Amino acid sequence: MTIENYFKTKYGNLSVSNDETQGSVKFIHASDIHLGAVQYSNEHRSNDFIQAFQEILELAIIHQVNFILLAGDIFTSLEMLPGKLTKIVKLLNEFIEFSNSLILIIAIEGNHDIRKFSRGVRFERRGQSWLKLLNSLGLIVLLDANLEAPPEDIFKPYNIKTKKGGKIQIKNVMIYGTRYLGEKPISLLSKIRKGITNNNGLFNILMQHFGIEGQMENVPGVKIEDIQHLRHRVNYLALGHFHKQYILQDWIYNPGSSEAVCSVDFSYKRGIFLVEVTKKSEKFTKLVKILHLINRRYIWETIKVDFEIRAKKDLEDYIIKRLHSYLKYLNHDIDPSNPHMPILYLILKGMEPSKSCKFNEKELRGKICNIFPIVDVKIYKKYKTPLKTLDNFILA
User: Fold this and answer.
1) Strands 115-116 and 121-122
2) Which of 230, 294, 322, 341 is the most exposed place for a label (fewest CB within 10 A)?
3) Cα separation of 393 and 17, whole Å?
4) Residue 162 pairs with which residues in a beta bridge?
5) Residue 376 — φ and ψ, nearest 5°?
6) Are 321 and 309 in contact (CB under 8 A)?
7) Is residue 172 within 8 Å of residue 184, measured between CB atoms?
């Protein structure tokens, strides 16, 4: 991320062309990038999210797309270190310059884009977000709608001067979008349907930030039957919000997060979609390809303690000795900025250490990171509960 004129340096011989052919349109659909995330307070992990965004922009250049859709949660919160924001703005400026402004980045606000975490305050009413800043700088197109207006005025065409609007047309594709509408957007989706022009000879895309019920276990979402009324007016529903990738009924698309935001995300299929829409004989066909990103590697290891440990040093020595056996295959010459240097998820099982064995988890994490070629370690304690009955003893 420190390379000056990154895209020129890497793709100097590649030029982005403006294909005037109206029959075909290509775009990338991404979401939940979570720029500004500082996972485990680790600088390298923070940079991983920016690098994932950089890779999305690179893929847009390589595949010569017409636009990029970002379906919310581009930022993780309103809290952002100035240095990180400067990197993002610089990256976007270089992308626009290299692509000759021919690849538009079209976005909507997700729930994280309008949220400030540290004090539990949401700024939705004040209308603040980093996306609005990027929009005001002309780096992205931020779509939103006036859901209090009559149907014909809900989605005003995006105005390049005022930098406001709820829809934008690129060739024979019309993109509609609104900000995050809350956990229960059903009533508002009915209004949105009325604002979308039907039978207009265009391929209609609607960007929304909500999940479909049942796609993530124990996570609430919108019932798929409650949005079927949109299907006759929307050819491609571009979703964000759930970090797990899914495609439903050949019109609902959720790419998942571009980088793992938490340990659970590592088990999900994630990435971005590359979509090509072609019009022949007044009919549209679409080809959707899944593109995988180069994400941070992760490993899980379990250490079982079969005896009671009373001293802090004994516990640390035991854990590090076991890790030497488990992690001996890792490359010690790799740089932490390289995504092949993994995150370690460490599970401690078995007998719980004595109460006198009080170890500092942050200190132990630091020691492990200093000894082994890993970016960070997250420790999970899953000790066995005390056995109280004969049945419990036998079952154990």
Assistant:
1) antiparallel
2) 294
3) 71
4) none
5) -165, 170
6) no
7) no
Q: Give CA 123 to chain center in angstroms.
A: 21
Predicted model pTM: 0.89
Non-local (6+) Cβ contacts of 154 within 8 A are 145, 146, 147, 166, 191, 192, 194, 195
Residue 253 corresponds to which tokens in the numbers above? 């698309």
Domains in the chain and their CATH numbers?
Answer: 6-291 (3.60.21.10), 298-395 (no CATH)
State the Cα–Cα distance between residues 210 and 198, nearest whole angstrom. Answer: 23
Around Cβ 366, how many Cβ atoms within 10 Å? 13
DSSP letter, residue 5: T
Could you tell me which residues are beta bridge partners of residue 236? 205
Distances (CA, A) of 163 to 140, 156, 160, 298, 367: 10, 11, 5, 41, 50
Running DSSP on this structure, what letter comes out for residue 222? B
**Pairing assessment for the beta strands 283-291 and 298-305 based on DSSP bridges:** unpaired
Which of 66, 3, 69, 60 is CA-nearest to residue 32?
69
